[in-house]
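hey m, so remember when u said the tokens were messed up on ur end? i reran from scratch. heres the input so u can diff it against urs
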Amino acid sequence: MILHIKYMVSQRCIMLVKEELKKLGLHYVIVELGVVEIMEDIRGELLEILKKNLLESGLELLDNKKSILIEKIKILIIEMVHYTDELPEVNYSNYISEKLDHDYTYLANIFSEVKGITIQQYIIANKIERVKELLLYGELNLTEISYKLNYSSVAHLSNQFKKVTGLTPSFFKQLKDKKRVALESM
């Protein structure tokens, strides 16, 4: 039986879901971001207990096709931006359409209708969060970050970063450095 879970976006979520399944005596085949395959076919009270336990942990068991499709889009984008070393060099719309085996216009319309933002806006928001992470780690400079996240230039990354956060990437990095100095002087 395949289950789809909303808000399952990290390794920590995967561990939490595995633990919940184990508590209920359920055996999983696969536990990935947003998707769980279990050996048993669960219904009724056991399914309700799983729903309740997941909800208490901030996760939600999905049961309608539209919600499942939107979650698949979100998971694909999160994996693409946060968990791969290099973003695909093909157009995002082609990549998403191919991976989910649906027409991109259909996916984009459903996503916008339910989430209130476009897929492109969601990708940008995730890319900016990834830029923040990489700036905070301090292992890559802005040129390397822009290359890693497939920006056409450092200027494009900087403009998009400022548009989303209200700060330039260098000012954001300075804020982090000032906080660290302040903490170290205590």
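this time it looks ok to me. The mean pLDDT is 87. if urs says something different then somethings off w ur setup not the seq
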